Amino acid sequence: MRRPMAAMLTLMICAANLYAAGNGLAGINEATSMMTSYFDPATKLIYAIGAVVGLIGGVKVYGKFSSGDPDTSKTAASWFGACIFLVVAATILRSFFL
C-alpha cells in the first residue's frame, strides 16, 4: 500500500518540475545573444594582445640581430608564427561562432 503512494507522489513531483522548467528556449536564446555580444570586444582584445606581442617580439628579434646572434632566424620565425596564430585564431573563432 505504501509503495503505490510513494510512486504516485514521486510522479507528481517530477511532473511539477517538468512543468516549471518549460522548454528552456528563452534561456538558450538569451545565452546565445550574450555570447555573441562578447565576441566583438574579445576579438579586439586578442588583436591588441597580438600587437603587443608583435612589438615585443620585434624588439627581441632586433636585439638578437644587432648582437649578431646566430639564432635570429629561429626567433623571428617563432615571433611571426605567434602573431599570425593570434590573428587567425581570433578570425576563425569569430566566424565559427557568429
UniProtKB/TrEMBL annotation:
Superkingdom as given in the UniProt entry: Bacteria
TM region positions: 44-63, 75-97
Lineage: Bacteria, Pseudomonadati, Bacteroidota, Bacteroidia, Bacteroidales
InterPro entries in the record: DUF4134 (IPR025408)
Signal sequence, start to end: 1-20
Keyword Membrane on entry: yes
Protein's name in the database: DUF4134 domain-containing protein
Cross-referenced Pfam families: DUF4134 (PF13572)
Keyword DNA damage part of the UniProt annotation: no
Annotated keywords: Membrane, Signal, Transmembrane, Transmembrane helix
